[in-house]
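quick one before i forget lol
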Amino acid sequence: MARRMLAVALVVLVALAGCQSPATTSDADGTTTALNTTEAPDDTQTGDTDDFDYADPETDRLGWEGGYWHNESLPVTVSDGLNQSERNQVINRSMARVEQIRGIEFEEPVSVDVISRDTYQDEYADSGDTSPELQTFDNVKFEAMFLIGETDDSISVQESNRGSNVLGFYTPKDDRIVVISESETPTIDENTLGHELMHALQFRNFDANFSSPTRDKANAHNGLIEGEASFLDNTYSEKCGAAWECASPESGGGGGGGDLHLGVYIMKYFPYSAGANFVEHVYEGGGWAAVEAVYDDPPASSEQVSEPQKYGSDQPTDVTLPDRSTDDWNRVTVDGRAEYGEVGVGGLTAMFGYPAYEQDRHSQDYVINPLNLDENGNVVRSSPFNYATQPVEGWDGEQLWVYENGDQTAYTWRLAWDSERDAEEFATTYRQVLQYWGAEQRSDGVWRIPEEESEFADAFRVTVSGDTVTIVNAPTVDELDDVHQD
């Protein structure tokens, strides 16, 4: 029953994710990008005031764009879609609203296109050609997290998730926003638009083009970028229907349905969930000036985002993992990426949390509840996942090396922790994940998932040494030492 309640809670959450839906256009390990209340720099113009002068100002100013004030009502009809003139009105007013909340002027308009989900899936969701090395590396990384098995293509699964869930994105190269409309007649969700407009301000005004060679670094950097946009659109959403009239369509279709892989979703949602909390923490300590300063010194790990008090103080460890494979096994590396995988607390939370939603092993209990619940047991919608659960909160660094031998693959994964206790806690929970997927213990530290049990059938060796955990994976128990000999 508890597992079913978790599944229902996440389905509801995914359906509600529209106003802060992932806006990235690609990743596989690197990235391209795409609280609850904040104070407007000058909130005297917020709300319905009979004596407010809606005349156009003589010069451009915060809270006014393209002929529309941020608190102005528009003569548009949402139910039958928005024609081009109506879309322009909504876009200009949304720009005024974003700059009113954030306190940064739009010096130039932002190009906004509205397309159907079918068009997005046909033209944007595909990551394009991938090298054999990237395909192998990514497949093994997702297999190591027990998210995508050996028979499936990890990049295709990620593309499918993007195609069914993304509601909009911003491309810094073109300084352009694309919003996905779920209706035949184009509509615009104002929260999605506000989120993407915040990205335009970020890339126009700050150095937001971070180098992110691993998943952990991508989640760390996007925790700032997407976190600030999510923090802003939470405020935008709260004002809609209260201080502001909004032209968003009624919720209902698309954006979080279909064959969404919930384990991958948990990992990819990290910047939006943990990031919003991170930016709120920074904002409360020093306002928008403090948030802007983070662009000059971005988080060094996703742990610093999920636990904001560690930002600037708890730097990740440079993990050492020597290559002890035989000549039969060759390292797989990808040009332009780090030579190793590093999934961080976002990936580890997805690994431990996915069994709560995985549909093929109904008789098995889940490992952890990944949802962030308030004191009443309700999901915190502004930050719905808890990426600082006990098994991952002491993370201190990692390296995952991918190997291949013909058409077989293997990996060695070393994770550093803040203490020996943290290492033991992680190892204990990892063994629970092994057992969930059907693993049987063969000897001290060695486990085997039989072929008939799951798509993760392999041999595993789990070793704890002080504050580090080393996991070795191979097709068979006899090949473990060939991949990495202790």
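fyi The two ends are 43 Å apart (CA to CA).
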